Amino acid sequence: AGPWQRKPLTYRLVGERLCSVDEATAGGGTYTRHGFIFSSLAGCLEKRSEDNGLPVVSVVRDAESQLLPDVGAVVTCKVCSINSRFAKVHILYVGSTPLKSTFRGTIRREDIRATEKDKVEVYKSFRPGDIVLAKVISLGDAQSNYLLSTAENELGVVVARSEAGRDGVPSSDSFASFPPERQLLRPPHLPCGGTQFQEGEPLMPGVP
């Protein structure tokens, strides 16, 4: 038997604080912040004893656990609300894999565009109901509020909600009427593989 220890009731959530860096060394599935070790996965806590030094703590994903957003992952999300500083979203896909449950994310004003960040206005970039491709730049906190960015050419709005409540996709006739400030992509790259959109149909499978 190896030096790994796993207890049945030590299931940890994303962003959950595990211990101080004075008590252990961060292993797989963890990260350090402000002198503490946090879980970057939802899974079982494991602790490995070291002969000369602190024990190593790791979090191992359960085989049946769902895929979780990780730093650098491209995700598809739906905008829920906006204000002058950020847009709140629900993360629906990681890559092309649909999530069993949604996670909350935030796109801050300074993370919307790579250039002229001081001129960005959130309400001109996104509207509630937009479907957006974004990249995870931070795992966020214990509430799974991931920080996201659209500051790359291949990221941005793939299905846009107009002020009139109608939807359009890049390269469609309805898309030309959207303001130029919107962070819109051409052509759309939906994870479900679809590029056709008919008014009145769901924007994505399982997304109202």
Provide tags for this entry.
mainly beta; OB fold (Dihydrolipoamide Acetyltransferase, E2P); four-stranded mixed beta sheet; elongated; Exosome_cplx_N_dom; cytoplasm; Exosome component 1; exosome
How many DSSP E strands?
A: 14
The CATH homologous superfamily name of the largest domain equals Nucleic acid-binding proteins
pLDDT averaged residue by residue: 73
Total number of helical segments? 1
Category from helices, strands and their pairing: mainly beta
Q: How far is it from the N-terminal to the C-terminal residue, by CA? A: 50 Å
What is the share of helical residues?
under 10%
Tell me about the largest β-sheet.
Answer: 5 strands, mixed, barrel
Strand content: 35-45%
- SSE pattern: EEEEEEEEEEHEEEE
CATH hierarchy, class of the largest domain: Mainly Beta
At the fold tier of CATH, the topology name of the largest domain is OB fold (Dihydrolipoamide Acetyltransferase, E2P)
